[in-house]
Write a structure and sequence with these properties.
Layout: E1 5-20, E2 26-41, E3 45-49, H1 56-63, E4 71-76, E5 79-80, H2 86-92, E6 96-99, H3 113-123, H4 129-142, H5 159-171, E7 177-181, H6 189-206, E8 209-214, H7 217-223, E9 226-231, E10 234-240, H8 241-246, H9 251-258, H10 299-303, E11 309-312, E12 315-317
Parallel strand pairs: 3-8, 3-9, 6-7, 7-8
Antiparallel strand pairs: 1-2, 1-4, 4-5, 9-10, 10-12, 11-12
This protein binds iron/sulfur cluster.
Residues 250-251, 288, 290-291, 294, 296-297, 301, 306, 319-321 line the site of iron/sulfur cluster (SF4).
Length: 322
């Protein structure tokens, strides 16, 4: 494993039982995350995109072991997270954090900002009472909140400010790796850029590594260094931001990019259109999961699963013809 790799995900799979027999025997599964392997480098932002239901949130939560994966390895700084016992994993949680989509839902309306941000310090019993308050004030300043707002409640804040509270709480334990799950989707367009810029600033100041999950390719392009594209639980393409947007290899990525409005003069459409619905993850298609919607599908596509291969340096794609 390269020294620069913070987290190596190997063959990660998460299945949910969708139907049981009368005697409780599983009859069918939802294949939410299907054999995902990728590395996340220190200090980078890895964007994860795909349509709703593609498994990107399940991937993020499985990586943090907030959902227990069905199989696979999660090598974090050389240690397999799945091999840690409850106490070791609790200790590891200080380094691994999650920022949710809806800041209002993730903040207890009966707690003040001070108590909300301080909660992780209380849970891990870190510092004296005064030291904890000092730390909260430091975090509030860092995310652009003022000391006077300390004793207010979540409903007194705007959506953007509430997400700042969530971010302050997520970084108060000085984590190394943060999964940001659609952190700006619930915000007004006018404040999205502010929150994205705040995340970028914090990353530079505190040497954070992000996995940034979003269905919005424009948002992911703005914040990410590299991007993984997911389809029905599998990663179908992984590349640097520039390579993915300028020279996408996978037909699904091309179709997703096609759906973005064209702000740049001279940028041309590839003509690739995404048709039909996403197949059910309970009974995914054989071979390449995308073959039921792909205009380039050939016989082999329904028979053999294309592996994620490095077609160009650093540019991975799972397509028989890429
Ligand atoms: Fe399309 Fe076949 Fe490539 Fe899948 S493997 S994306 S079906 S061409």
């Amino acid at each position: 494993m390269s020294d620069n790799v913070l987290l190596s995900v190997k063959h990660l799979t998460k299945n949910y039982v969708s139907k049981k027999s009368f005697f409780g025997k599983p009859l069918s599964y939802v294949h939410a995350v299907d054999d995902v392997s990728l590395d996340i480098f220190r200090g980078e932002t890895l964007g994860v995109v795909g349509e709703s239901g593609c498994g990107k949130s399940t991937l993020g939560r499985s990586i943090l072991r907030l959902i227990e994966p069905t199989s696979g390895e999660l090598i974090y700084n050389g240690k397999d997270l799945r091999g840690l016992n409850k106490e070791e994993m609790r200790e590891m949680r200080k380094k691994l954090q999650l920022i949710f989509q809806d800041p209002y839902a993730s903040l207890n309306p009966r707690m003040t900002v001070l108590d909300l941000i301080k909660a992780p310090l209380d849970v891990f019993n870190i510092g004296t009472h005064d030291e904890r308050i000092e730390r909260v004030l430091e975090m509030m300043k860092l995310v652009g909140l003022t000391e006077e707002q300390m004793n207010r409640y979540p409903h007194e804040f705007s959506g953007g400010q509430r997400q700042r509270i969530v971010i302050a709480r997520a970084i108060i334990l000085s984590p190394e790796f943060v999964v940001c799950d659609e952190p700006v989707s619930a915000l007004d367009v006018s404040v999205r850029a502010q929150v994205l810029n705040l995340l970028k600033e914090l990353q530079a100041k505190r040497n954070l590594t992000y996995m940034f999950i979003s269905h919005d390719l424009s948002v992911v392009k703005y914040i990410s260094d590299r991007i993984a594209v997911m389809y029905l639980g599998r990663v179908v393409e992984l590349a640097t931001k520039d390579a993915l947007y300028d020279t996408p290899l996978h037909p699904y990525t091309k179709a997703l990019l096609e759906a973005i409005p064209l702000p740049e003069v001279g940028r041309k459409r590839s003509g690739m259109q995404l048709e039909g619905d996403v197949p059910s993850p309970i009974n995914p298609p054989s071979g390449c999961y995308f073959h039921t919607r792909c205009p380039y599908a050939k016989d082999i596509c329904s028979k053999e699963k294309p592996e994620l291969k490095e077609g160009r340096p650093g540019h991975w794609c799972a397509c028989h013809f890429a």
